[in-house]
Amino acid sequence: MKVLSLIIPLIALAVLRTSAQQYTPPTQYMNLPVFSNPAAATLSAEGAAMASGRWQWAGIEGAPTSFRAGAHLPIGKADLQGGLLLRQDKMAVEKQTDVTAFVALPVQVASETYLSLSIQAGFQEFRGDYSSLDAMDPAFAYNEKRSSALIGAGLMLYKPGRFMVGLSMPAMPVFDGNSLRTPAYYHLLAAGLLPLEGDFQLKPAMQLSYSKTVLFKADFSGSLIYAEQFGAGINGNNYGEFAGLLNFYQGRIGIGYSYQFATGHKVARAFTASSTHELSFRIAFGKEKPGFL
Hints:
Helices cover 8% and strands 55% of the residues. Strands 1-2-3-4-5-6-7-8-10-11-12-13-14-15 form a 14-stranded antiparallel barrel. By secondary structure, it is mainly beta. It contains 3 helices and 15 strands. It has helices spanning 2-5, 7-19, 266-270, and strands spanning 48-55, 65-74, 81-91, 94-110, 113-128, 144-159, 163-174, 186-192, 194-195, 200-211, 214-226, 230-237, 241-250, 253-262, 276-284. It holds the Pfam family PorP_SprF. This is PorP/SprF family type IX secretion system membrane protein. Keywords: Signal. InterPro entries: PorP/SprF_Bacteroidetes. Residues 1-20 form the signal peptide.
């Protein structure tokens, strides 16, 4: 029965692997840029903590889930930020976990404009618990475990409250024998805040993600923000996925939710339960009042 209950996500996984893998960053990437580019940590001078959860193909047992968490704090009297990031992705009986530490330092390059540089290092572990499907079936009579060191770097040019644009390679696995599993990713992230009439602002954003063995992904978003507290918008990408975005900030706390549905990808067309839910949370430390950029 367990094999039957997991057959749909396993078939979907096989489809993705035979063509090319997908990359599924959070739809709230513009509000949690540290996950894509740790250099963005210097946007929060007093530090912050954040987390996001993603539940894909809601209603299907063994469907992909993704959890991200992180925190960073200032180091010493300089503007240096140091932090930790955790990422765990699950699908059926497969699980991948990344843990990295990073430091980020901004340099002022113009009036109220900064260039931040980050470097990071950590490890990655992959586990495939295939024997749990059916220990008596020779096809599932093995498990897989791989690990690798990770390194990464990022650049972010920004003007607080106005714009940010950054290029990053947040986690590149390092070869150690046959343990390499996930290729390096490269991200180009940009977002801005445009004033409108009254208390309204428009926040356009995009993120381009590339890897040699993963389908290129282009995400585009737009949100209408009211009184720097409420935000509502839409997100779309070249996989044929669209999402509605909601955000709320009160004091030092920010909460986000998105509902994503697929229209174009062949895996999405194969299953009727293709909706994805995502929740995000962020809290700023000190006296800082977080904003939408």
